[in-house]
Design brief:
Layout: H1 9-142, H2 145-163, E1 169-174, E2 180-185, E3 194-198, H3 202-210, H4 214-239, E4 249-252, H5 256-265, H6 267-275, E5 278-281, H7 283-304, H8 306-359
Amino acid sequence: MTTLDLNDPLTLVLIGIGALVFIMLFLTLRSASRSANLAVPLAHQMHSLGQRVQALGDGQERLAGGLHHVSEAQAAQQSNMLQLLEKRLGQVQQQMNENLHGSARRTSQSLGELQQRLEAIDKAQANITKLSGDVLSLQDILSNKQTRGAFGEIQLNDIVTKALPSDSYTLQATLSNGRRADCLIHLPNPPGPIVIDSKFPLEAYEAIRNATTDWELNEAAKLLRSSVRKHIKDISEKYILEGETADGALMFLPSEAVYAELHANFPEVVRDGFAARVWIVSPTTCMATLNTMRAILKDARMREQAGAIRRELGLLFQDVERLGTRVENLDRHFGQAAKDISEIKISADKAGRRARRLDNFDFEELAPEPSETVVPIAGKP
């Protein structure tokens, strides 16, 4: 029998190892018992999990069938949609083609109209260029006093010739004092012949338009007042002659702008003209004044011709009476002729009946006819 020496370190180590092995074995057995106890519910859970997996598989199969059905329906719907889209695209393409053709036609028409407008613009540009040259020529004309006066006279002559008959005025008429007026209107007395003279104070008006300071504006206003007042005085002294012309005269301004400037900003100058019996007129107001004069001339000529008109009316009345008498005589002759024609027709009917009897060889004794009264034709003995 082997005895263990507890004082031997090797023995102590072996005892310790044995104890450790025993403890580990004990712990292992204890752990295995616990694992066995835990495996039972785990097995139940695994079984339940298997059933769920089986159910999931069945559901997946059903889902696959449903997806297949949905895929087929989607394919059919997609096919129908493609056909509808193709049809719609065809309609859209046709409509786009029609719209493109219409747009092309309208574009072509618009281009044609644009071409015409461009041609019109070219013509207008040419006219503007020509007008620019004319404006420059007009500026050259207006820059000179003599040519500016001729311009006013030409404009006045044009207005007078359009408004009045040719025998009612005289252009460049010479008065008894030797002065020559631009135009003399032959109005009856009163008021008598009236003079129209053209004046054009352009320098003073342009000075007002071009003034940039108050001093320049005041100086230009003074120049315009003095120029117009001088023209008023000259016309009053030269062209208002007692016993020969009317007791007033007209000063023609060939510019509406100058006329408007005077009446808007220089009313005292216009009143000076009224006081001197010189009335300032523009092209527009001159035409209105001449139309009034034409009415006066027409009325005067009507009064002059009133006696001749009454005499002609008397002769016309006699002619009408004579015509009425002759119409009555002619109507009486027509009545007598109608009566004669009626009687001639009766005799012709009787002669026709006799001729028809002779044609039928009707030689029976004819009954005597009542005696006829022969009416002579008017005018025959």
